[in-house]
């Protein structure tokens, strides 16, 4: 009997898993044949987020040369490396281009087609353009995957959930705001993937409150300006007259930091140094567990500081007061934050060359402006300074910190659910918008189309409208009949609109206190409440407690998603080869390729 693997989700994560199956199958799978069923209502490869049916105005937030779906020698994995083109190599783009998402979707389709073509003979892929509703079946037997509009289930020996970002039911605050909007004829757009939001309800010329200053806001800004016929002439925005006025605020009150606009040169900092596998093993082994802020964050700070100062001392030694060897020795020996601050103050004369993560995280803490207009000027100056620094190689220690963030993220994946703060901090510092988008933001601000609210933004519903205020400008309040929550829904399994995940919880799968699906970090097997892995159910992606920065990454940075994909692919193939665990590994046999998209 041919084995069956069902992968729910055919976007970047499902495609990456398929690529790793193709890479590992010659070694691990020599069965009589294998049917791989991909379940996704969207096209394989691109999936929902990168589908062609969205505005060409929406960009990726990474340079084309920094996007790859293929492994290289830096990925710590057991399976074989199969290198392939980056986005810019495949699309023949300038490497510094910020490609639109439609191009990325076509690149992902190429990766998918290449993975299917690379499968051994006897392995067939079937795409089902439908939604999976639930998974049933005993732990020790074949699983049933029930599809929308299909009376009989797909029978599977093994199931992998690669669902990507989830739609979610509203939390209590959002429910109350939505109910108020419905009762008073207001517009309330809850957290969502911006390209899927109906923005037609936001009228021209009217104030719109926007809560969220990250990438979802950037998409919103683009669709409501250029998307409504506006245009840029150099650094000036020429309105079409169809734009609303966006009042934007957030907890930090500032946009995400610009993408760095120069290339790396010279040797990379030797990472990991203070937060590597040994430190993660020690944290995981603590009998009483660990606290992120108390036990993990100091190691993160020291690791990022090491990356920063290694670059500063070795590439810009004229801006330091001691030799690197002396500083490194004392930095390694420093046991407290106060000792590190004193060492840095003595060795690095210019405060602009010192790494202050707290100031980076909350740049408006304690800052107050006398008027709303004064704050507009102040925040424009902040954004201009950020753009200048992030495009100046004299501050290349910032790029070293970015590499440190990638290294840290790859280690923290093994700790499971460490709460949402770290992921937000990482995105704010390392996954911000392209520089040109922030220049557009400045132009929109000067044109009065975007207005800044400040840090600690609060929104209330009162007197038949929404009202927003912020700590940064005491006393300033703006009222509007529309509110947009510019962020993705939280990846909470218990509130997922996807019935598949809620049914999984009912069937015994465990979730973390933050609402993420618990999985084995080694191979992605779904865990139950006692920590027991399910032999036939796996999960990968942002809804799990082994979430990574993304399904693709920049080349030669050891992307943790690639490592996870490889571990899951190898575990799945080993199980499918020998479900009972009784036979020894067999040598790979002859095989044949069948076309993608055939039906069972």
Care to describe what's here?
- With 600 residues, the protein is an alpha/beta fold.
- The protein folds into three domains: 3-168 and 491-577, FAD/NAD(P)-binding domain, CATH 3.50.50; 172-256 and 434-460 and 481-485; 277-355 and 389-430, no CATH class.
- Helix content is 34%, strand content 14%.
- The protein is built from 16 helices and 19 strands.
- The strands form five sheets. Strands 3-2-1-7-19-18 form a six-stranded mixed beta sheet, covered by helices on one side. Strands 8-17-9-12-13 form a five-stranded parallel beta sheet. Strands 4-5-6 form a three-stranded antiparallel beta sheet.
- A hairpin with a 2-residue loop joins strand 10 (231-233) and strand 11 (236-238).
- Helix 7 runs antiparallel to helix 12 (397-412) and helix 11 packs antiparallel against helix 14 (435-446).
- The longest helix is centred in the middle third of the chain and has 24 residues, at 292-315.
Share of helical residues:
25-40%
Number of helices: 16
Please report the first level of CATH classification, the CATH class of the largest domain: Alpha Beta
> What do we call the CATH topology of the largest domain?
FAD/NAD(P)-binding domain
Spatial strand order of the main sheet: 3-2-1-7-19-18
CATH homologous superfamily label of the largest domain: FAD/NAD(P)-binding domain
Beta-strand residue fraction? 5-15%
Q: Any idea what the radius of gyration is?
A: 25 Å
């Amino acid at each position: 009997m041919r084995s069956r693997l069902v992968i729910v989700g055919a976007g970047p994560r499902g495609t990456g898993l398929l690529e790793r199956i193709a890479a590992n199958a010659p070694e691990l799978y020599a069965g009589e044949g294998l049917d791989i069923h991909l379940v996704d209502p969207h096209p394989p490869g691109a999936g929902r987020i990168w589908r062609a049916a969205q505005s060409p105005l929406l960009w990726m937030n990474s340079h084309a040369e920094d996007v790859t779906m293929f492994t290289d020698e830096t990925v710590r994995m057991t399976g074989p490396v199969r290198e392939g083109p980056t986005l810019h190599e495949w699309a023949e783009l300038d490497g510094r281009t910020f490609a639109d998402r439609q191009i990325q979707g076509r690149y992902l389709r190429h990766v998918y087609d290449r993975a299917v073509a690379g499968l051994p003979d006897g392995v067939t892929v079937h795409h089902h353009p439908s939604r999976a509703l639930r998974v049933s079946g005993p732990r020790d037997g074949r699983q049933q995957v029930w599809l929308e509009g299909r009376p009989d289930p797909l029978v599977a020996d093994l199931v992998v959930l690669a669902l990507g970002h989830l739609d979610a039911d509203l939390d209590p605050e959002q429910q109350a705001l939505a109910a108020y909007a419905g009762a008073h004829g207001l517009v309330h757009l809850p957290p969502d993937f911006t390209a899927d939001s109906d923005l037609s309800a936001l009228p021209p010329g009217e104030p719109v409150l926007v809560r969220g200053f990250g990438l979802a806001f950037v998409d919103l800004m683009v669709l409501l300006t250029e998307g409504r016929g506006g245009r840029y002439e150099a650094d000036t925005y020429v309105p079409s007259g169809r734009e609303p006025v966006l009042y934007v605020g957030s907890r930090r009150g500032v946009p995400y930091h610009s993408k760095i606009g120069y290339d790396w040169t010279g040797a990379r900092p030797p990472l990991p140094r203070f937060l590597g596998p040994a430190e993660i093993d020690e944290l995981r082994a603590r009998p009483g567990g660990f606290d992120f802020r108390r036990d993990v964050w100091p190691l993160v700070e020291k690791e990022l500081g090491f990356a920063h100062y290694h670059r500063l001392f070795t590439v810009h030694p004229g801006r330091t007061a001691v030799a690197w060897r002396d500083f490194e020795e004392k930095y390694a020996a420093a046991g407290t934050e106060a000792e590190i601050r004193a060492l840095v103050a003595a060795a690095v004369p210019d405060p602009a060359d010192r790494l202050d993560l707290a100031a980076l995280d909350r740049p408006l803490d304690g800052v107050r402006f006398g008027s709303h207009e004064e704050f507009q000027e102040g925040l424009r100056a902040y954004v201009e300074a950020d753009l200048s620094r992030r495009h100046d190689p004299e501050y290349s220690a910032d790029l070293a910190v970015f590499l440190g963030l990638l290294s840290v993220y790859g280690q923290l994946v093994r700790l499971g659910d460490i709460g949402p703060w770290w992921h937000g901090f990482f995105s704010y510092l390392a996954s911000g918008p392209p520089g040109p988008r922030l220049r557009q933001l400045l132009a929109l601000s000067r044109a009065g189309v975007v207005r800044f609210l400040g840090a600690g933004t609060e929104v209330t519903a009162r007197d038949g409208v929404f009202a927003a205020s912020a700590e940064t400008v005491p006393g300033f309040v703006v009222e509007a009949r529309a509110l947009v929550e510019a962020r993705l829904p939280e990846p909470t399994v218990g509130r997922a609109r996807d019935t598949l995940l809620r049914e999984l919880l009912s069937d015994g799968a465990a979730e973390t206190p933050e609402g993420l699906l618990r999985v084995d970090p080694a191979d992605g097997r779904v865990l139950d409440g006692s920590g027991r892995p399910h032999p036939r159910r796996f999960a990968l992606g942002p809804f799990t407690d082994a979430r990574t920065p993304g399904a693709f990454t920049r080349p030669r940075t050891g992307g943790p998603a690639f490592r996870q994909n490889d571990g899951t692919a190898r575990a799945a193939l080993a199980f499918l080869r020998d479900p009972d665990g009784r036979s020894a590994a067999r040598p790979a046999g002859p095989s044949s390729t069948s076309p993608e998209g055939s039906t069972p």
